[in-house]
């Protein structure tokens, strides 16, 4: 089993009365670093190791298209946010329970940065997947056939094809033998490895 972590910005708050009283810029306003709806995906498989770069280039979707135009996707997380979310991201990338007993799903945590006048609220979610290496795929029709068969397995949420392998996103443990049997029943395909 492999793991990714998706970080989603759920909300941004601002407390103008506190900013007026305590900030050097009394009209600082909301956090300029994040937009509600921003999604970051952290990977740690093969050559990818996004955690050790503080999320550099992990922004996958943003409501603020100006962030992409300004190169926002190339920036790591701000230090206040990173201090608050890094431990949950690292735990998820290792396959651990992000917040057992507090959240209704141990793969999820809702948290915020430590800026007391303009906090950002994050949803941190561990994504479980199998990296399945398949020989014999020649076209999109092959991928569609395999994707359809795999998503028919209870507990499989999504199948995404990468250059060298397929990512099979799961909600629960699924035996490698079942994955292999389903893929190979689709035609002249051979599963060579499942991580």
TrEMBL record:
Gene Ontology MF annotations: metal ion binding
InterPro entries: CHP04076, HMA_dom, HMA_dom_sf
Name of the molecule in the record: TIGR04076 family protein
Organismal lineage: Bacteria, Bacillati, Bacillota, Clostridia, Lachnospirales
């Amino acid at each position: 089993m492999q793991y990714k972590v998706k970080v989603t910005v759920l909300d941004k708050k601002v407390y103008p009365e506190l900013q007026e009283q305590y900030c050097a810029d009394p009209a600082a306003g909301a956090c300029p670093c994040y937009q509600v709806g921003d999604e970051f995906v952290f990977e740690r498989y093969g050559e990818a190791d996004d955690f050790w770069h503080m999320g550099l280039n992990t922004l996958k979707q943003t409501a603020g298209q100006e962030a992409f135009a300004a190169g926002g996707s190339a920036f790591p997380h701000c230090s206040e946010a990173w201090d608050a979310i890094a431990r949950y991201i690292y735990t998820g990338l290792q396959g651990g329970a992000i917040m057992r007993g507090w959240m209704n799903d141990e793969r999820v945590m809702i948290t915020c940065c430590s800026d007391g006048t303009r906090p950002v609220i994050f949803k941190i979610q561990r994504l479980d997947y199998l990296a399945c290496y398949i020989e014999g795929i020649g076209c999109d029709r092959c991928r569609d056939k395999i994707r359809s068969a795999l998503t028919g397995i209870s507990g499989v949420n999504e199948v995404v094809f990468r250059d060298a392998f397929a990512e099979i996103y799961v909600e629960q443990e699924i035996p490698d033998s079942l994955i292999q049997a389903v893929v190979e029943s689709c035609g002249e395909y051979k599963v060579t490895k499942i991580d």
